[in-house]
Amino acid sequence: MCDTVNLVPFHAPVQALSKTIKRRDEKKQLRDSLLSIAEDAKFVLSIKQLYPALPLLANLRCGLWYTAAQHNHTCYFKSTDGHGPSHHDFSIRRLNAHVARLCATKGGALIVDATRRGKRFPDALAKTVPIWACVWNRAIANTRCQRK
Q1: Between the CA of residue 103 and those of 23, 38, 64, 147, what are the distances in Å?
Q2: For residue range 69-120, what is the model confidence (pLDDT) as tens digits?
Q3: What distance in Å separates the CA atoms of residue 36 and residue 148, rounded to the nearest whole number?
Q4: Would you call 71 helix, strand, or coil by DSSP?
């Protein structure tokens, strides 16, 4: 006689069968998610090794999952900061001035964030960070011009 582990009897109600299948799927999804995070973390580490002089910043929205102990600093760029369906604007809620200072002193920075499946880039990196960088660059350039 073979061992039966976690098998639902054939005559079990549909709800019980559905719950058992859902539990199995959740365990598989959790395992797959953790494996995906581990693979992505390896990728982040490989990029960091290509640019050892640049600081690695984990975006506090989702980036900490992928940087573990490698990140030097954190930042907080929210996907909805600075853009909407019909406007692009600089958000003063999260200035990330420490990131601007790091970029100025180190020549740049590596920012790590994540997005859902099917999207190529997180909105924070595709929209918010470019607007943020543009505003900081223009503000610094204007300040330098005024000093001359």
Answers
A1: 46, 27, 20, 21
A2: 677 789 998 877 765 666 667 777 788 999 999 999 999 999 999 887 777 8
A3: 52
A4: coil
